[in-house]
Structures are given as structure tokens and as C-alpha cells.
Amino acid sequence: MAKITASVFTSHVPAIGAALDAGKTHELYWAPLFKGYEYSKQWMKDNKPDVIFLVFNDHATAFSLDMIPTFAIGTAASYQPADEGWGPRPVPVVQGHPALAAHIAQSVIQQDFDLTIVNKMDVDHGLTVPLSLMCGQPPAADFKWPCPVIPFAVNVVQYPVPSGQRCLNLGKAIRKAIESYDEDLNVHIWGTGGMSHQLQGPRAGLINKDFDNAFLDKLIADPAAAAAIPHIDYVREAGSEGIELVMWLIARGAMNDVAGRADGVNLKHRFFHVPASNTAVGHVIMENK
Length: 289
What we know:
By secondary structure, the protein is of the alpha/beta class. It has a single domain (3-288), classed as 3-Layer(aba) Sandwich (Protocatechuate 4,5-dioxygenase, Chain B), CATH 3.40.830. The chain is built from 10 helices and 10 strands. It has helices at residues 14-21, 31-35, 38-46, 98-110, 125-135, 164-179, 209-221, 223-227, 231-238, 246-252; strands at 3-10, 51-56, 71-74, 78-79, 94-95, 116-118, 149-154, 186-192, 265-276, 279-288. The strands form 2 sheets. The chain has an 8-stranded mixed β-sheet, with helices on both faces. Strands 4-5 form a two-stranded antiparallel ribbon. The longest helix has 16 residues, at 164-179.
């Protein structure tokens, strides 16, 4: 049967993608950030999955304010990098896994979560920047990502947005779905977005290192406490876009300890850096024992 072996959590700042694409990773401003992912890129090579289930939020690329699903699963065979106003990123087309995605959709909907099925969409920096950070820039001779990806988009743009508890419970349902898939697959689940940031208004540029690190503490050691954080706390303490952190709870909900397994999890890597553009960057890797 398929199984989830690890979870990855990372910010998906668009300026990180621009720095990667422009070859600026060794510049004084960017070097400390990319150094924090050196371990991660080697870990990824040593623990290559068969499929990545990647939780992210769309930034008005696939969905507009005309229609925003709360939870949307990509079931297509492939996904083009999106043009977000300055041309698509020079990264490979994302290959999907339609069979596993359809199975997850069937199972999760039968567990009483309403999902939107997406058979065609472009994917923006919310998905491609985490892939670049973890996998590096694919060489021209082999221009592809290391494995298929199932995109899972969450509405954290237009209120009302899902609660942290809802997201943690959804992670449990996704784990159950993956474990019932009748093929021996090694699956990673990634939660992306955040950390503290606000893009508009009088508090534009807000970064709250104390809140961010307290969230990481809870995410790792007490996911139930992280899931109990109310929306108003995210907005007040982490800025209007800090609510993206609820997406990390989907990935966290799929891990052994949340599922009640005695074997638990191992923390492999934790990294935090400010600033990256106008936000904080957080990153965690956890493995199921």
C-alpha cells in the first residue's frame, strides 16, 4: 500500500523564485536564506518520493474572486507553470498523478470533506517555489522535477477561510486515503505558505518573529495547540497573509503522531530566516518513524 513517509513545510515567497531564476542565490541578501535549504536539497536526494502531495494557495492564477473553492485537488496529468504577470518561471512542467489524485478525492469526499476536482489549471509560485527550494533548478539536460506532484489548493485569500482544526482533520483524511491506495508508493506531503507577512495597508511589511517561532514550536511538538489558534490571532499577530499557515496543518495532520501511532515522528530540520522580500521564511522537515 502507499504510505506517507515525510512532511515538508516551507514558505513560498515569489521573490525567492525570482532570485533563483536570476542567479542571485549567492548575493549577500539572499545567501543566508538559501543556505538554510542546503540540508533540505540533500535530504530530498536521499529520500526521493514517488509522489508529492503539495498543499499551497493559488494567487489569482487558476482561481479569481469570481470563484474560489475552499479545497481543490488537481487530478490532471500535467500542470503548466503560470504566467503571473512577468512570464512563466523557467521551470519544468509539473507532472501529475491522476490515478492517486482521483483515489484521494474519492476517499476524502467519502470522509465528508467537500473537494473541488480540478482537471486543468496552471500552477503559480505557491507550488513551483517550494519545488525549486527542495529540488534545486533542474538541469537543462534533464529538465523535469524528480517525481509527480498532486496540487492541492486551499483558499486563504477570500474570507471565510478554513479553520486550523479543519485543516488538521483534513490531513488525517488524506493520510487515510493514501494508505488505502493499492500501490506501493512513497508519498511526501508538503504544507506551504506563510509565515508572518502583510502585503497592504498601514501594517504592510509586518514580520513577527516571536509568533512565527511559537507557531513552529506548536507545529512540531503540539499540533493540536497549533490547530486551535483562532483566525483573529493570525491576523493580529502575523498579518493578513499570515493565515496561510493553516495550510501547514494539513500536512501535519497526516503524520504518525496525529494519527495516534506510537512510533511517532522525527524532526529532521528546522530553519527560520528574516527577511525574504517582505516576509519571514520558515521551513521544517519531519519524517514518520
